Amino acid sequence: MVSVFDREHFQGKCLEFTSECCSIHDCGLDNIRSIRVESGAWVGFEHHDFQGQQFILERGEYPNWEAFSGSLSYHTERFMSFRPIYCSHHSSRMMIFERENFMGRSTELSDDYPSLQAMGWFKPEVGSMHVQCGAFVCYEYPGYRGQQYIMEDDKHSGDYQAWRNWGSHCQTPKIQSIRRIRH
Amino acid sequence: MVSVFDREHFQGKCLEFTSECCSIHDCGLDNIRSIRVESGAWVGFEHHDFQGQQFILERGEYPNWEAFSGSLSYHTERFMSFRPIYCSHHSSRMMIFERENFMGRSTELSDDYPSLQAMGWFKPEVGSMHVQCGAFVCYEYPGYRGQQYIMEDDKHSGDYQAWRNWGSHCQTPKIQSIRRIRH
User: Fold this and answer.
1) Least CB–CB distance from B141: residue in A67, A71, A137
2) Domain Beta/gamma crystallin 'Greek key': where (chains A, B) (predicted)?
3) Does the beta-carbon distance from A60 to B112 stay under 8 Å?
4) Most Cβ neighbours (<10 Å): which of A4, A73, B76, B154?
């Protein structure tokens, strides 16, 4: 369950959700300025219909926009739709590839990696990815910072052929840290 | 080793370091605007002499201020000193306590926790901490976001009695995610 508020610090109009919301306008909210995640893992989106910049939301309190956004350069303060992340497996496993369409050098990931380069990946970019089971968050910079992309085994059969389909506003193949989503 | 640059995207004057720097001014730089960490884990500080806001820096590329800062609300774009983090142990272990001075309810941590509440901690604050071995990064918000505090077993004997000594500019006892620092 997630509680969303139209003012910072859990003030103002409050709505509770147990399933996805494709447009907060249709629920009578203009914007979301604070969030309390009571259970599960969720992903928030900048635009309606699960488009635009993504925000991973795990259990806890997000009193303002800064708390759920991971990126400064692309500062919109818009939060228009969200949905739960279903993690059907207890374990998470994915492959990352040097080039698009699952070509070039590759490696398997099944842990959390605050620095892909520290664990042996040879450059700050990833060409393509395949999620075999579970769900991951991929980040532009080391240490789980910058743009976030949620990758799930039940979306596109877990196939992410190129950086253009990591998210609808993705502008770079840079991926420098990756971690599992767990409940 | 870490390479620092006085312009974004690894441009401008470049200096390389293999050990701590307590003042970049003394090294002839006005500011640091991009960083490439070649090896090890480092911590950067907003002010000279390892004071102020902290930034964990692991292997990889940080092309601009956004990439190494974790917090929007406290936007200074100053980066004046840094030092390596020594992780003498292969494993990391710490205790968190409900109240100051190691009082109240407690729990032991030895893994990465994107949400402390999801793993059973009962509120968004921590009263005090003791690092038994290794080093951790603690974050204000879930998902490794917001203000960062580096906690090490070889600083203050691993004792962090209250939120005022988590960092020289710490203003809140909020800690909602914690992870180990590994090389």
Assistant:
1) A67
2) 1-39, 40-86, 92-133, 134-182
3) no
4) A4
